[in-house]
Amino acid sequence: MSTIRLTMAQALVRAMAAQKCEIDGEVLPIFGGVWGIFGHGNVAGLGEALHGVRDALPTFRGHNEQGMVHAAVAYAKQMRRRRFMACTSSIGPGALNMVTGAGVAHVNRLPVLLLPGDVFANRLPDPVLQQVENWGDGTASASDCFRPVSRYFDRLTRPEQLIPAFNRAMAVLTDPAECGPVTLSLCQDVQAQAFDYPESFFAERPHRPRRQGPDARELADAVAALRSARRPMVIAGGGTLFSGAEDALARFCAARGLPVGETQAGKSSIPDSEPMNMGGIGVSGSSASNELAAKADLVLAVGTKLQDFTTGSWALFRDQGMRMIGLNAQPFDAAKHRALPLVADALAGLEALDQALGDWRAPAGWTGEAERVRAGWREEAAAYTALPGAEQNAAPSDAQVIGAVLRTAEPSDVVVCAAGGLPAELHKHWRTDRPGGYHMEYGFSCMGYEVAGGLGAKMAHPDREVIVMVGDGSFMMLNSELQTSVMLGHKIIVVLLDNNGFGCINRLQAACGGAAFNNLWRDSLHQKEYPSIDFALHARAVGAHAEKVAGLSELEDALRRARRADRSSVIVIDTDPMATTQAGGAWWDVTVPEVSVRPEVRASRDRYEAARQHQRLGN
């Protein structure tokens, strides 16, 4: 057996560079690059190794470890999990900063390879700088925090352990069912240790996504359930996009007269212009989707994990006999809530259903009802996104800002968001006919994802305009990768909606009967006059173009200028923290205190108890 003597770190990056994928007939490196912030836990070992392969495996320097993981996660999401990135940090705080990003990847089932530095395997310098010591466990380190948010975790304490660990890592990163973050915690002395690795370990290796077909019996059960349904509908989840099944889904639903509700992850998996697209479903969904969901007697859930925002905390479906078919590559998701499991790749499953159903269509009356409620919803939604009338004295709403962005948008645009009130408004109002035109991180709904996520989306699709919509609260959480976008030349447009605080949670606080407290600046205890933050000046300070606009017309003009700009732009607009789209939406289970001196809380508890009566039990 031919071998080559390399350090563990050198072997790791060479193996990474040898991994390939095929997209539209083109063979590409499966790793789009490595994000790295160096410290004593990785600069000498992995840093030296990355320098040696920088032409084949580029390294990008971030400003914040959490931000660079967000960028990597967004890249993988936009690439539909076909390509992904790695992230490396030092030990201690650098590693722990990546854990939140790992949680984002884990919840959203997205691949990213995390390479935190770790303590010395030989333990001679213990405790090393930044080492977390556990008095009851000599094997513990800060990297153990990655265990619950990793699909696969391994700590490399000998250089030869890299071979099985890396092979397992690649299997998880490329598996449609297991996919998620992988952590290889690299002891810093082991990174620099040499071993005679087999040359075959570095041979080019192609990875092709598995397309598992459905079990014949599960398929037969699903077909029988659809044929017997009187009011069937479809929920399109993110797995539809990961599978590349969007065209098949659109054809399937159009031919069968099946209305479709989109999850946050699944939005853009069916064109907005498709007559059977009812828009978002659930807590942040449209009145069209939610009205039909309440009546549906069968739901075909395609590629969705059915989180509570999708199901209205399982109070959305009111038909007592409603059945569900779970078409999903992951058996855990397919069988949720006593669904008929149809374990398969979304595209393979839809094609099998389509063939087996023959000329079956949903009842004409049900399809007609879907068309009517869709038309009603779109008329209603248009009023929320229209320019305000002369009588409006308050600052514009989030929906009105979305309307302004849409009026200047191109079909290829990608909107990126994650947290606050904007996800609900965008789920209802953003319109796109292009897959990937809606990029919402709503599995974790991680504040601070937006700017870094926009950068990752742009790196995945440099030919598409990426528009980040973000509130002031989330922007303040993490904005440093704005400078990274300027430094790397990956231009994004940031529309920053400033409502002077955490407007979304302030509204939730009020809905639960709570007093306005600690969310908006004016309701905090810091000082009598809340501060005014010059976000445009901040953006200019890190090299971006920036301006603050006085209204929606100015916003549209600024967006056109931003499109022509040669670098990232930030456009700031003041918005009303109280205004929100009242149409659409569904109940969400946020527990209200049983006992309170506030009558508003007691009234909210009564409403809460009434709403809970609709939750489905025994699932």
From TrEMBL:
<dbReference type="InterPro" id="IPR029061">
    <property type="entry name" value="THDP-binding"/>
</dbReference>
<feature type="domain" description="Thiamine pyrophosphate enzyme TPP-binding">
    <location>
        <begin position="420"/>
        <end position="573"/>
    </location>
</feature>
<dbReference type="InterPro" id="IPR000399">
    <property type="entry name" value="TPP-bd_CS"/>
</dbReference>
<dbReference type="InterPro" id="IPR012000">
    <property type="entry name" value="Thiamin_PyroP_enz_cen_dom"/>
</dbReference>
<feature type="domain" description="Thiamine pyrophosphate enzyme N-terminal TPP-binding">
    <location>
        <begin position="49"/>
        <end position="130"/>
    </location>
</feature>
<dbReference type="Pfam" id="PF02775">
    <property type="entry name" value="TPP_enzyme_C"/>
</dbReference>
<keyword id="KW-0378">Hydrolase</keyword>
<dbReference type="InterPro" id="IPR030817">
    <property type="entry name" value="Myo_inos_IolD"/>
</dbReference>
<protein>
    <submittedName>
        <fullName>3D-(3,5/4)-trihydroxycyclohexane-1,2-dione acylhydrolase (Decyclizing)</fullName>
        <ecNumber>3.7.1.22</ecNumber>
    </submittedName>
</protein>
<dbReference type="InterPro" id="IPR011766">
    <property type="entry name" value="TPP_enzyme_TPP-bd"/>
</dbReference>
<dbReference type="InterPro" id="IPR012001">
    <property type="entry name" value="Thiamin_PyroP_enz_TPP-bd_dom"/>
</dbReference>
<dbReference type="Pfam" id="PF00205">
    <property type="entry name" value="TPP_enzyme_M"/>
</dbReference>
<dbReference type="InterPro" id="IPR045229">
    <property type="entry name" value="TPP_enz"/>
</dbReference>
<dbReference type="GO" id="GO:0102481">
    <property type="term" value="F:3D-(3,5/4)-trihydroxycyclohexane-1,2-dione hydrolase activity"/>
</dbReference>
<dbReference type="Pfam" id="PF02776">
    <property type="entry name" value="TPP_enzyme_N"/>
</dbReference>
<comment type="similarity">
    <text>Belongs to the TPP enzyme family.</text>
</comment>
<dbReference type="InterPro" id="IPR029035">
    <property type="entry name" value="DHS-like_NAD/FAD-binding_dom"/>
</dbReference>
<keyword id="KW-0786">Thiamine pyrophosphate</keyword>
<feature type="domain" description="Thiamine pyrophosphate enzyme central">
    <location>
        <begin position="220"/>
        <end position="353"/>
    </location>
</feature>
